[in-house]
Amino acid sequence: MSLPTDVLSSPTGVDTGAPLARANPSAKLAVALVLSLALVLTTDAVTAGAALVLVLLALPWCGLGPRALWRRGWVLVVAAVPAGVFTALLGVDSGAVLVGSDPVDVTTGSAAAGLALVLRLLAIGLPGVVLLSTTDPTDLADSLAQDLHLPHRFVLSALAAMRLFGVLAEEWTALGQARRARGFGEQGPLGRLRGAGGQLFALLVLAVRRATVLATAMEARGFGASTHRTWARPSRVRPGDVAVVLGGVAIAVAATAAGVAAGTWQLVLTG
Amino acid sequence: MLLLGASGSGKSTLLRGLAGLLDPETGDEEGVLELDTVPVRRARSEGVQAGVARTGLLLQDPSSQTVLARCGDDVAFGCENHGVPREQIWPRVQEALDAVGFPYGLDRSTSRLSGGERQRLALAGVLALRPRLLLLDEPTAMLDPAAADGLRRTVGRVLDETGAGCVLVEHRVEPWLPHVDRVVVLAPGGGVRADGPPAEVFAVHGEELAADGVWVPGRPPGRPQRGPRTGPRLLTATGLAVARSGARRPAARDVDLGLDAGRCLAVTGPNGAGKSTLALALAGLAAPAAGRLAASDELAAGAGPLPHRWRARTLAARIGTVFQEPAHQFVAANVADELAVGPRLTGLDPTTARRRVEELLERLRLGHLAQANPFTLSGGEQRRLSVATVLATRPRLLVLDEPTFGQDGRTWAELVALLDELRGEGVGICAVTHDAELVDALADDVLRLPAGAA
What is the CA radius of gyration of chain B? Predict the structure, then answer.
């Protein structure tokens, strides 16, 4: 078992010079949040579908080719499609029965709900995948602290902790090997589960110890001792970044308008 | 200045104290610790506010000291915290990287560095602060001899050029001596045992220091008595290539070697040459990437020729592995249980198992710790325990990864004596190590891996 560190690593297979990839990380984050908000407000397929289509149309400017996108985003598809299928089969039935018999059947109502769920998950997830794939975590932290003025101690601690994830993935592998060397393993599902519990405990102990050393190293270099801090990498909001945010808002508004026009848009809470 | 003392005499704690990093709420404090006549904690916070680093602390573990993902950013981190203006930061970063002879650009990912490169990067991060006092806590413990030598020379040159002071904690004294003009020895219970120029301190206190586990120059901590004996072949590698888990490119390739009962093979080579990865394959913990690794009938005893296919229990009874990090191997809540795990899993009857546990507790001086939690032991005790747990199943072959790293002279001598004894009993030993003294004392054969391709 290995932890998914791919998403956290710096961009590979990505054209970092593309207009949207180059945009200020906070602007990209804002776009992802605005789109999520628009799709959390309603559950209909038209709004989600329109948003997904518009985001896909914007992809050529994101610097993410189809292969790079699939490599980072396949988890999303793997999660969304079964969720949609289960909703179609087991969801609240309404309208004509298409396939099967109650309770496992597909009706026009449940099929629409399933389709809407898939489209929503993809439309919410895709901007997030683009954000993570085209943004170096260090740049995001710089931008959050400098442009949005979030507390730098919090932002930098989170950034350092994220780097430790990669180290912990290596530790997990080493722990597994050490346990095999001691004679643990292959004792049936229950034994394996107990073994994983022990391994997880050992990982926690090691993680705490690593984090303590890292904290000492950071403090030794003056971290947290002063409220005044300079930034070696300047992060600025340019006019283009404002345009990116406005573009995101425009997609959210257009998708919502499409849903309203089709008569399917309905505020979640009133549903 | 060189700070010496037995394990547990508080050397590292004193360094952290000097750096102003000890929290008064988590321990007891007596007396005063002052830097330029200012209490250390105030010296630290005022220094940072004013953009001046009074101290620069370098720790022993390179992998836990990297803060950021890009090398340049990591070196700049301290300057940013000290409020150094941006236009001054990058020249300082470049200067510090040049001073340590860093071979890559600012954008190099820190996750792609070897241990030696990482330690140089950490030193650059400290030097970029231009500290008035360097605090070095076993800075070469994890480095190969060439990398350690380079780091020592860099530190010596920086001290000469900047006129900064330095407090060094180190077990292996000798290679640092050209840079040391004062030695302070801490007494185990508290207080100072000796303080003076190196030649004087070692002449007067040499014997008691050696007994405390300090590596006194000219007094090697002990030599093996028995030597090798001839025994049957246990494991043969032919054209073996090994890769780290998840990596496509092999870490080491075209390895040919044989491990015999009653002999010790040392595997050496620079940081990043794939020594640890090779050890994992030899120990049956990772499948070879190419080539062949075959156990003889003598070792396999009916389990088949491929160790990585053996069941975990079968493996534990035949090949024992001692990991670089002892804590990786601990699975039980106390020392006695830890030792009992192996015999239980390999199906030994309880009476024999209990006798074996008691024997090992005695032999490795762990008797008084039988009920202690393994994670709470000191570095030397953890090392002895990790070796003892492996011996509990009486394996024919022992694979050790850096068994002596971070150990004081006393534990070192005990380990060497124990391994010599096991070799005399017909156990085959393969030790992956940077420790030239260990190779010198114990190895019957040496395999040197070339620098890695990665």
Answer: 24
Cβ neighbors of A255 (< 8 A, separation 6 or more) are A38, A39, A47, A48, A50, A51, A54, A123
Both A124 and A244 in one domain: the answer is yes
Where b means 16+ CB within 10 Å and e means fewer, B380-406 reads bbbbbbbbbbbbbbbbbbbbbbbbbbb
Tell the residue number behind the tokens 């975990």, with chain if given: B312
Model pTM score: 0.79
Q: Which residues of B touch A206 (CB under 8 A)?
A: 325, 327-328
Is A160 in Cβ contact with B83 (below 8 Å)?
A: no
Residue A12 has pLDDT above 70, yes or no: no
Q: Count of CB contacts below 8 A, A vs B? A: 171
Check whether residue A243 and residue A118 sit in a common domain: yes
Please give the residue range of the domain that contains residue B386: 233-448
- As for how many domains chain B has, the answer is 2
The secondary structure of A88-109 as a DSSP string is HHHSPP-S-EEEEETTEEEEHH
Domain holding B297: CATH number?
Answer: 3.40.50.300
Number of domains in chain A: 2
The one-letter amino acid at A115: L
Q: What is the ipTM of this complex?
A: 0.81
Is B53 in a helix, a strand, or coil?
coil
Per-residue pLDDT tens for B90-111? 999 999 998 888 888 898 888 8
At residue B7, the pLDDT reads 64
Residues A131 and A243 in one domain: yes
Domain housing A97: 25-135+238-270
Q: Which residue among A138, A186, A210 sits closest to B73, beta carbon to beta carbon?
A: A138
Q: What is the pLDDT of residue A3?
A: 37
Whether residue A72 lies inside any domain: the answer is yes
Two structure tokens written together for B116: 């030696």
